[in-house]
Design goal:
alpha/beta; 6-stranded mixed β-sheet; 4-stranded antiparallel β-sheet; about 30% helix
């Protein structure tokens, strides 16, 4: 059981293998000339879990996540959402499928306020003719909705949705990006290195926020190089190496050094202690 500053957080109820994956990648292949970034990559994300994706540089984890978020189109393989094959030729298509991604660069506009950033590209219009004909924005509703989303995620360090993002700290900006993903992602939230540029205190706040997103009902894919963070919040750990998955680990049954050894190829997954592999793939 994970422990956070907000108390104990349980792992997904019931055997993972008994549920249908919310998001699944089957045999994804992506080549760039003679370079194979993905060589038959698989991934399963189940309801109510945080799945960490780890891998050394060049392991293909970025290409895998780009395929799932619509940033690249695989040369072969299949992506399924709730058991149904989908095509994700663009990030917009991924969003329409309910997959929201928080990129490492955050993609927030510093000069705009928090509410505008939350609804960027999905602005709410005024009701009636003012919205349909004159395309006037319903700024008051966007402010109230932004405040509601921030409150539901327990983000208490941001009180004013009219505040410009450029006045926020790194952790607060990350919170805005996560709140936007949680507000519009109705199936999956993908987070790419969310604590990479943050200090200890802000990293703690973002980790708590990730747990709250999971507890709100949205499964999370977390890409991170920070092993302590991975082992603190992840329910399962997907290890990517040489363009494909080599193991899915149970963080409660193995050590960080075991995960690093599998990730680098120093240890064969078959040599792991009993209970190290996640039950669905042991």
């Amino acid at each position: 059981m994970n422990q956070t500053s907000t108390g104990a957080v349980g792992r997904p109820a019931g055997p993972i293998g008994s549920a249908e994956p919310v998001l699944q990648a089957v045999g994804l292949v992506k080549r760039y000339g003679n370079v194979t970034a993905l060589g038959g990559a698989d991934l399963e994300l189940y309801p109510g879990e945080i799945l960490a994706v780890i891998g050394d540089n060049g392991a293909g984890k970025s290409s895998l996540i780009k395929a799932l978020s619509g940033a690249i189109v695989p040369d072969a393989g299949e992506i399924l959402v709730e058991g149904r094959p989908v095509r994700l030729p663009t990030p917009i298509a991924a969003r329409e499928a309910g997959i929201e991604t928080v990129h490492q660069s955050l993609a927030v506009s510093p000069s705009l306020d928090i509410a505008t950033n939350l609804f960027l590209g999905r602005e709410l219009r005024r009701p009636g003719v003012l919205g349909s004909v004159f395309r006037m924005l319903d700024r008051s509703r966007m402010r109230s909705e932004a405040a509601r989303h921030l409150s539901e995620l327990g983000i208490k360090t941001i009180q004013n949705p009219n505040q410009a993002v450029e006045t926020l700290s790194g952790g607060q900006r990350q919170a805005v990006a996560v709140a936007r993903a949680a507000a519009f992602g109705n199936r999956v939230v993908i987070m790419d290195e969310p604590t990479a540029a943050l200090g200890v205190r802000e990293s703690r706040a973002v980790l708590d926020l990730i747990l709250r997103v999971r507890d709100s009902g949205l499964p999370v894919i977390l890409i991170s190089h920070n092993m302590p963070h991975v082992f603190e919040v992840a329910d399962r750990v997907h290890v990517q190496r040489l363009g494909r998955r080599v193991a899915t680990l149970d963080p409660s049954g193995c050590s960080m050094s075991d995960a690093v050894a599998v990730m680098t190829g120093a240890l064969d997954p078959a040599e792991l202690p009993a209970g190290a592999l996640a039950p669905a793939y042991s």
